[in-house]
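Hypothesis: this fold can be encoded by more than one sequence.
Test: take the structure tokens below, design a sequence, compare later.
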């Protein structure tokens, strides 16, 4: 079978390929090769500036040639590395050999060829490359997707700040809120989760086979290799420096990042389910598109498929991200390879998250508020005013306010007339009685509207 969108084993590379296309150049094997070349070049150029007698500072032309290899890296270059790997059976060594081949016809670079990958173990290149991949994915895809959702939620919170809505706690009618306030709750949670994702420091190490600069010191015993490594990682590559590692960077920062993404996704699962329920109650309608079918047999249906897809894909993402965060920080002694194959699935895990963000954004874009349904629901729930009535009774010292309202309202249908009749019989000051008689379920929303409008 020819590999295509129809025969791809993963739906991320098949049915949903277009929706995760932005991640493909960053977290694919091509993306890993590209970053490996970037790291090898950064290390090589830094070595030329280290003051070693055997490796003079590179000329501007040589530096331009090297940086051009990074900036112009394409699929043909990646395939050339894969072809070398068929012989080496080692992916990082294939990058080293490919890089040296790019020195052909460049006498200055050829003379310094053995400083490519100098004193490095494969994991010096890999861990740094993985950090660069995650940095790009976070900055270019994950955070923009979350920012798009936050912008939509913020606009909804402000636009619907005043629209009253019946709450449901334990599935039962409860004190009213506003639609905007409920959206603001989600936006505030997601904003905090977004900050946690953005705040994770992405770490890297370049300290040799077991983290002690053994090979480095064997060649240049007097050189400050730790300071040199820190400079390449922090100034050259824009990552955080981890001074204490075994052969691999221990991936604790990855666990922190993946856990942070998982928490954001969990918030959005909660929201997807809530919106699904509000659509079911008729609080929201969904705009339809000509030609779309909701059910193969029931013509009237407009299914909340976007919110169902979002929930399902967030679940897949979280399952994979949780495995990554629990497995990656564990390595036997100074190194085992169980992390290597798992790390190749970063794109899969984050791909399902991005797919969820896309589905949720599409769903939110189709929503239309049904204020008539919201108002009818509120008008059928006069029992929710038992709370303010008994609270005012408490203030004025009336006997057993909670118990009186419990006996009056529980298990019985309530109407405006019944509630106002109860209020009318209370021994309350006339101004308090008048205030309660003017109260409706739609008007009993506390500070909800102000809280929704205050959302930044």
């Amino acid at each position: 079978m020819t590999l295509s969108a129809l025969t791809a084993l993963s739906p991320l590379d098949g049915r949903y390929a277009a929706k995760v296309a932005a991640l493909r150049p960053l977290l694919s094997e091509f993306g890993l090769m590209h970053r490996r070349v970037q790291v090898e070049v950064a290390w090589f150029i830094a070595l030329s500036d280290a003051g070693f007698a055997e490796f003079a500072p590179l000329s501007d032309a040589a530096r331009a040639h090297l940086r051009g290899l990074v900036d112009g890296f394409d699929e043909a270059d990646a395939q050339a590395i894969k072809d070398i790997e068929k012989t080496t059976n080692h992916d990082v060594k294939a990058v080293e050999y490919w890089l040296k081949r790019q020195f052909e016809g460049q006498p200055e670079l050829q003379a310094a060829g053995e400083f490519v990958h100098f004193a490095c173990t494969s994991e010096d290149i890999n861990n740094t490359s993985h950090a660069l991949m995650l940095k790009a994915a976070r900055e270019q895809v994950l955070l923009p997707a979350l920012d798009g959702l936050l912008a939509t939620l913020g606009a909804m919170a402000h636009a619907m700040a005043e629209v009253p809505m019946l709450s449901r706690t334990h599935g039962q009618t409860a004190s009213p809120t506003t639609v905007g306030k409920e959206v603001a709750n989600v936006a505030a949670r997601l904003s905090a989760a977004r900050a946690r994702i953005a705040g994770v420091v992405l770490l890297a190490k370049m300290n040799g086979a077991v983290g002690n600069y053994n090979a480095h010191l064997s060649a240049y015993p007097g050189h400050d290799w730790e300071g040199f490594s820190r400079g390449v990682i922090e100034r050259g590559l824009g990552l955080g420096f981890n001074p204490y590692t075994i052969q691999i960077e221990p991936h604790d920062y990855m666990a922190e990042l993946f856990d942070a993404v998982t928490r954001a996704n969990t918030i959005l699962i909660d929201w997807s389910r809530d919106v699904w329920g509000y659509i079911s109650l008729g609080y929201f309608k969904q705009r339809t598109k000509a030609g779309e079918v909701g059910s193969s047999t029931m013509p009237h249906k407009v299914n909340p498929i976007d919110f169902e897809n979002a929930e399902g894909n967030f679940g897949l993402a979280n399952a994979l991200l949780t495995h990554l965060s629990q497995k990656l920080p564990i390595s036997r002694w100074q190194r085992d390879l169980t992390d290597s194959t798992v790390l190749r699935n970063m794109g899969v895990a984050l791909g399902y998250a991005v797919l969820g963000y896309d589905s949720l954004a599409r769903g939110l874009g189709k929503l239309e508020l049904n204020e008539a349904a919201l108002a009818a629901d509120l008008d059928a729930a006069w029992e929710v005013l038992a709370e303010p009535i008994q609270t005012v009774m408490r203030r004025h010292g009336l006997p057993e306010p909670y118990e009186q309202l419990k006996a009056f309202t529980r298990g019985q249908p309530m109407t405006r007339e019944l509630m106002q009749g109860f209020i009318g019989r209370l021994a309350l000051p006339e101004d308090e009685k008048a205030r309660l008689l003017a109260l409706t379920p739609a008007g009993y929303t506390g500070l909800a509207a102000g809280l929704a409008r205050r959302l930044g």
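The domain at 18-121 is CATH 1.10.275.10 (Fumarase C; Chain B, domain 1). The mean pLDDT is 96.
Hypothesis status: open.
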